[in-house]
């Protein structure tokens, strides 16, 4: 944590490279990429605090962080995040921790005079059977997917917190809805990981074990969109610097590539990149989740932003990172950033 500044700044709602920015969740997939992108864009006054210093589910600790560091802007990338299995096993933790983190950061940021904040939601906030691609205006128009409903409800509450503050008090708290993310620093622990890093891990391990069969959940038919986390981070810096929430009809904006693949196509791509030559076995008894999740990214495109990684390039760089940074630790049985379920 950095030391306090002598006086509170004037808070322009759009952020400049001299602004002090708090990146909450800077050790995570998104937070670390946002931190990298801000440093790469010339920001030098960045505030971070690890969970050991400040547990963001603790209101008093969060208040102290905001009051002592007095950031001009906040990127809220701290959350309890996980795949279908973790959401299924720990629904209470997913709704509780996310509600607590959002309420504490958003309300304490407001009380500390922060005018600019980016809240990270997720594409799972949209109804399970909403028309595709998903437009921002489809929020709260139908029933949510069962498998991650507690998490999604917490994220929707976070959106309402930000939108209500904007409407009542004129803050500029923007809600960004990223699609499925992946990239360097991802979580490769099979108990808590998302589908893409889980596939990389499974194919990598199976290749190392003589190209044994790889078991994958579900039928392989659902379609998903994937965005490289460095593309997301670039988009967030772009939004921080140049897009006021008041110009967004719903106060929120989708961030994705606008292209999807079936889980079966994804598995074949990962298999090819990893170089696994054994069979793939599907387990249709396991849940598929939402049949299709593709974001409508028309709003972001109209603002002039486009992603830079193709899916193949992105998976190659991620696999390279996994092999060099994480794979050696796999031999000891503790792969990925999160060796245990949180
Ligand atoms: P990670 O799990 O990689 O990172 C979460 C971060 O939050 C970590 O830095 C973690 O710290 C921190 N954190 C968790 N609980 C607490 C706490 N109680 N107090 C302080 N810090 C805490 O998640 P992602 O980076 O993947 O996700 C970040 C955001 O992006 C989330 O809001 C998520 O909903 C959103 N998002 C992610 C997607 C994805 O595919 N990953 C897709 C769409 C949206 P530590 O490392 O110490 O545990």
Q: In what order do the strands lie side by side in the largest sheet?
A: 2-1-3-4-5-10
Q: Helix fraction?
A: 25-40%
Question: How many structural domains?
Answer: 2
Ligand set: NADPH dihydro-nicotinamide-adenine-dinucleotide phosphate
Query: What's the overall geometry?
Result: globular
Quickly give the structural class. alpha/beta
The level 1 CATH classification of the largest domain is: Alpha Beta
Instruction: Please describe the biggest sheet, giving its number of strands, its sense, and whether it closes into a barrel.
Output: 6 strands, parallel
Provide the CATH topology of the largest domain: Rossmann fold
Distance between the termini: 24 Å
Regions with little confidence, pLDDT below 50 for 5+ residues:
1-11, 330-342
Give, in order, the helices and strands. Answer: EHEHEHHEHEEHEEEHEEHEEHH
